[in-house]
Specification:
Blueprint lengths: L8 H9 L1 H10 L5 H15 L5 H6 L2 H9 L8 H19 L5 H4 L4 H9 L6 H14 L7 H4 L18 H22 L1
Helix pairs in contact: 1-2, 1-3, 2-3, 2-6, 5-6, 8-9
């Protein structure tokens, strides 16, 4: 089963097969449409003219990487900040996971440890880390014991709460409707 987050076949194939691309897409998934965030890793490979390599990105001149992110259309609303965050992510992958992004999850002993590892990555707060671990469990068959409990409520089977639940356009629309309802409820509470 492949991911369907960008709704672009080639970009989704990259996300499915390249753990670093998936991590970068998730880092970029804030303050821009999710399809754009998850299509960005493919565009980054095109702009670099090569596959994503954490060691290469970690040592790349920061201004050069920011310039690559800033080429119009920019990869993110905040290209320089996201280039910096991506570079920090790659450095952690090199330093802590021997340059293999998949080791973030393949070497975790259980869901709690996996959640802790993901939450320690740049750009991942507690909620985003839970969503990412739920995505790994629900769609990529990462079976760290206790992952559903560690990611509650995002790990619940049959839910449509986040990108972890997007498998096609219909499920994406259900997730968007849920988020719209949550924003309306928050606005009503604040008002």
């Amino acid at each position: 089963m492949g991911l369907h987050l960008s709704q672009i076949d080639e970009a989704d194939e990259l996300l499915t097969n390249d753990p670093l691309a998936l991590l970068i897409g998730m880092v970029l998934d804030q303050q821009i449409p999710l399809e754009r965030a998850f299509a960005a890793p493919l565009e980054l490979t095109r702009r670099l003219g090569r596959l994503l390599d954490p060691a290469d990105l970690a040592v790349m001149d920061p201004e050069k990487l920011a310039a690559v992110f800033s080429i119009q259309p920019a990869l993110h609303r905040f290209p320089a900040a996201m280039a910096q965050r991506t570079q920090k992510l790659c450095q952690i992958v090199v330093d802590s996971y021997d340059g293999d992004a998949a080791r973030v999850w393949t070497t975790a002993k259980d869901g709690r440890e996996l959640l802790k590892r993901v939450a320690a990555l740049p750009g991942f707060g507690t909620q985003k880390a839970k969503i990412f671990v739920a995505l790994l469990g629900k769609q990529l068959n990462v079976d760290a014991p206790g992952w559903r409990e560690a990611t509650a409520p995002f790990g619940e089977a049959g839910s449509y709460l986040s990108v972890a639940d997007i498998v096609d356009q219909q499920s994406r629309d259900k997730v968007r409707e849920y988020k719209k309802q949550m924003k309306a409820a928050a606005k009503a509470r604040a008002g």
